[in-house]
Amino acid sequence: MAPTPTLQPFHVLEDTRRDDRTLPAFTVSTTRGFLPRDEPITELPREFAALDTLLHRCPIRTATGGPGLLAEGLLGEVVEQEFPNLVEHVAKYANDQAMLTALYRDYSFLASSYLLEPCHHNMLKSGSYGLGRSVLPENISMPLAEVARLTGFQPFMEYAGSYALYNYRLLDPALGLTYDNLAPIRAFEKGLDRTSSEAGFVLTHVDMVKESPELVAGAVNTLRGAEHYLAHGDKKLFKDGLKEVVNSLTKINRVLERMWSRSKPGEYGNFRTFIFGITGQSMFPKGVIYKGVSDTPFTFRGESGANDSMVPLSDNLLQISMPETPLTDILKDFRKYRPGNHMEFLSWVKSSAEQVGIKKLALEDAESATLYLHALDQVRDFRWRHWNFTREYIIKKTAHPTATGGSPIIRWLPNQLNAVINAQMEVFRALEDLNHATPAVAEVREKVTKQKADLTKEVEKFCAERGV
To answer: What is the recorded function of this protein according to its Swiss-Prot or TrEMBL entry (predicted)?
Structure first.
């Protein structure tokens, strides 16, 4: 008989120790989930007043309602002629991870604004992006590279540490994390108006991740429940953990559905230009030189919801098998673009799920298999909604072939969506073998079968239209 597996420990915080600023700003917890341990810092130290002032002047429409530097095409000139190199001040905050993350957010915002400013104006004039700037000047590249080194982020805008999860403030701290109490800190277009489409795009992601503590707890409890079952033969804790996962993903999907009313499809292109990356983009055919940092051009992927940790956590926990394709290689590459502790936790979940055999245990009996099916169905639902957003916000609005992160716009999401659907099909067959047929399972099967056919038709249609 094989020995009972014993999982390696992983410290998921319960007390996020908000006052300890030596800890990374992002550390997985059962109280904050994948959000930062404390609310993001909104005010920079006086040494960085020039950075704060420039970012207030930067958006297409500023907080005062007037045109900003990006609207007038003047940011590049101001950066090159007026903006100081503040890298010498970064070391003062070497032991303050929260402040370093705020500086990372702000310098990465400035870097993307500077590099992609020409693309914004090219798009307005010609309908295509043209070329971005190919050299990032020292006054941005050096401090950005240094804060990235000290925090572990990539020296380019990331989803968690910059554009989304460290880019919100509470209007009234006493009211906490409710959507109507959130406002962005930085913006490219007119996102400083919290009713704008850019603000809605950013804050809906924060609103979703607010629901991640239960998902984190559910994943840990599922794994520990599997370990307990293998040692003692009692499956209750395992099933309870799966129920937590299903409940959490259901709440996350409800929030995601609100994107339609908070961020309009026809307005997404107004700010999307500035969240493109370098990798795989026609705007940067030779990469970008970070002057004063390296003579070798850098390429980084752009800001993308694929950097979020919630669905990858679910993939790893549920052992969803991705096909061995170049599209899956891109998915793996995205793993580098999230906080270090998130990466470590997702890796632990993956190896632990493999060690105890989550999928095998789930398919042993009808009750566990049904819970597992519903968890998969929530992952499918999330990816289906994401595909719908991509179709309506991007594919129908632009012929640009790549997403902001550098993945092929049409085929990439269906690669992952089909993987989840295929996993569900396997569960349907297992339930048949267990002679378990219920109206609820039949309803899920009918929906999934139709969606798979609809997805195939849509992908073929879009590929034929674009000749890809």
So the answer is: Produces N-formyl-kynurenine through the oxidation of tryptophan.
Neighbours of 292 (CB within 10 A): 16
Any binding-site annotation on 386? yes
Are 343 and 245 in contact by the 8 Å Cβ rule? The answer is no
Region 214-231: mean pLDDT is 97
> Distance between CA atoms of 419 and 462, rounded to whole angstroms?
20
- Which residues span the domain enclosing 320? 208-259+304-466
In contact, 167 and 202? CB cutoff 8 Å = yes
**Inside any domain, residue 445:** yes
Q: Which residues contact residue 295 at a Cβ distance below 8 angstroms, ignoring those fewer than 6 apart? A: 289
The answer to whether the CB of 139 falls within 8 A of the CB of 85 is: yes
Maximum alpha-carbon separation in the chain: 74
Q: Is 85 a domain residue?
A: no
Are 407 and 305 in contact, with CB atoms under 8 Å apart?
A: no
**Residue 324 in domain:** yes
Closest to 301 in 3D by CA, of 284, 319, 276: 276
CATH code, 423: 1.20.58.480
Contact 242, 364 (CB under 8 A): no
Q: 313 CB contacts (<8 Å, ≥6 apart)?
A: 215, 216, 219, 345, 346, 349
pTM: 0.96
Query: What single DSSP character describes residue 408?
Result: B
Q: What is the pLDDT of residues 368-385, one digit of tens each?
A: 999 999 999 999 999 999
